[in-house]
Structure formats: structure tokens, C-alpha cells
Amino acid sequence: MNTRDLQYFQALVKYKNYTRVAKEFGVSQPTVTQAIKRLEKEFDAQLVYTDRAHRQNMITRSGQLLAASAKAINEQISLAHHSIDLVQERQIRFGLPPIIGKLLVAKIAKKVPGSIMRRVQICEAGSQELLSKLLKGEIDVAMLGSVAPLDEEKVYVQLLTKRPYSIMVSAKSPLAQRKKISFKELANQHFITYDKQYVHVAAMRSYFAYAHIKPTVAVYKVPDISWVKELVRENVGIALMVRDAAKNETGIVPLEIDDPLPEWFYISLAIRNGYVLSDEEQHFVKLLGQVAKEDE
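C-alpha cells predicted for LysR family transcriptional regulator (296 residues):
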């Protein structure tokens, strides 16, 4: 079966017009017609019929079933072409969320040989966005944060480590004298909340629900972790944050959460299913796991 035939058919499902499909691919209309006939012969089923009353080509039920598979096949073929093209560049396209970057990037740079590190192309974004990029083939390897161990059908996932959350307060705040605090005690505090790309959002909801409090928001949906730190430092509000993310930050004090709710920031390694790592990528991935374990 010719994969180009599937591309023609997918376009025909979309436009229901042979002439338009031919124009889009720069071929003659008979070329498209013959491609559809080959597919009908291959599957021994009528895929298209002509509604002469409305002058439109319609897709049969068999055609609709094939269209669903054709879309997935064409996407995989396109992804394969893209991945093979990138082999020649020898780049390691690596996704890293800002918070995990804060925790580990310096240690990664020290651990990974310069000959490999020079080929690492870092894409920084929130974990949800990086997962989307991984599935689309825009990156090949990522470290992802989550509020529970990841379970993604199209991605190989290896749990590397987990980190506790803390409440971050300004050194100027009276709360800075505390070592531990429960969420119920924070009912009257002003919180700084994160953009939805951060997994912290789900953890905050869990703590608020557990404590039966409705938070007062000082600043809503901050898109960058460094901004959150600065707002906390200036005592604009308090924030939930992975404890190590604000380690040794001047003017910020982490308070241990004195609630039994077992919320953790999980750090996982993710690789798109079907992607074959190069020798350098395998070595890079192995070192990532070592760095995460050493930093526990």
C-alpha cells in the first residue's frame, strides 16, 4: 500500500472534492482517483460514493473507519521523517521545566561531559506543555514534574525522585519565625497562585480542600517561578513551592507543612514511545537519573 494514497484519501475526507485534493498536492485529478481505487481494492470496500443530487463526494462508513486510521498512520510517518532528519544533526532535544531546572540544571551540567552537553538543546516550559511537545515530536526526552506518578500510554516514564512541598514566606513576615505550619492556619493569608502549566496548582487545590479553606489570592496565575519568589520575598503574599526550589534564597523562608496529606512533587524521565535513543542520548539519560538520585 502506498502511503501517499492515504494522504490523498485523508485530504478527500476533509474536502470531499477530488479537484481540490489534486490542486493541494500538485497532481492531476486522475492520480487522486486512481489512488482511491487502489485503496478500495486493498480493503475490498467502497470508501467514497457520489451524491449527485448535491454534487458532492461522500465518505462511506468503511471510509470513515479508514480515515481515523489514516490520520494516525500519516502522523506517525511524518513524525518518523522528522526524527530521521534530526539524526544527522545529533542534537539532544531535552525538555526541562523551570522548577526542575532550578533544582538540577547546574548539577546536570557538571555531571554530563562537555562533548554531550554541547549538543543538548534545552526547551524550558511547564510540564504539561513539555508532555505535549514530546508527543508531537518537538522534543525527544524530558524531565517532568507531577503531583502523582505519571502514567502516559504513548510515553515511556521512569520515576526518578520525589520532593516535598513547603510554604514559602518572606523573611519580613511574622510567619518566618515558625518552622512548621498547617494550611488551616493560613486561612487569612494572601496566596500567590501559579499559571496552569505548573503542577503546583493541583497540589494547592488538594491542600485547600483538605483544610476546608478558600484562599485569598494576592496575585493570580503568575507564569514564572522567579516572579513568584520575588513576590514572596517582598511580602506580597505566600506561596506553595517545592521545598528545594527556594533553597538558599535570600529573604525567603520555607515552612514545613504540618498536615498529613501526602502531596509530593514527582520528577520523572519521559521518552516518547517508539523513539530510539542514540548512544549519546542513552548516556545522557543515564546521567540524568544519577543526578536526580544524588540530589535526594
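The two ends are 52 Å apart (CA to CA).
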